[in-house]
Amino acid sequence: MITLIAAAGENNELGKDNDLLWHLPDDFKRFKAITSGHYIIMGRKTFESFPKPLPNRTHIIITRNGDYKVPEGCYVVNSMESAIAACPDDETIYVIGGGEIYRQSIDIADCIELTRVHHSFDADAFFPEIDPGKWKLSASECHGKDEKHAYDFTFETYTKL
Fold it and tell me: Which of 44, 90, 118, 120 is 20 to 30 A from residue 65's alpha carbon, by CA?
């Protein structure tokens, strides 16, 4: 099973200058809970946005640079097909970004775990449009802004029709 997991603003904004646009601790906790113990697929720029590899996850990094060096426990591939092939067949694989990697994988994904941040942002990376003819919103959990969260947000789960 292939699951896209992302946080996106009202206009599908993901980030700017290879950085997030918000700080939502509950979203980070959810991301960690969902992806821990699994294979995560990402583009090189997403990988480089982390200070170090995320613990308790196997990183598959897609890049055209065949000489790209990564730490132990991380693997480099040159395509989405190679990334999927590097993961076990019987396990859920999580695609964690960025925008181009989401675009390459949305048509082959089975599920989308999206945190919809209820605000508009200036961004240079975007999540692809979720086509209601292909996806059904199967779960939704709203969270209001508070002292730790500057924006309202909703955890949304989409399943392929």
Answer: 90
Question: Helix (H, G, I), strand (E, B), or coil: what is residue 31?
Answer: helix
Q: What is the reported pTM?
A: 0.96
Note the pLDDT tens digit of each residue in 117-161.
999 999 999 999 999 999 999 999 999 999 999 999 999 999 999
Instruction: Determine the number of helices (DSSP H) and then strands (DSSP E) in the chain.
Output: 4, 11
Second CATH level (architecture) for the domain 2-160:
3-Layer(aba) Sandwich (3.40)
Beta bridge partners of 13: 126
Structure token pair of residue 12: 């599908």
For residue 138, the SS3 value is strand
- Residue 54: DSSP 8-state: P
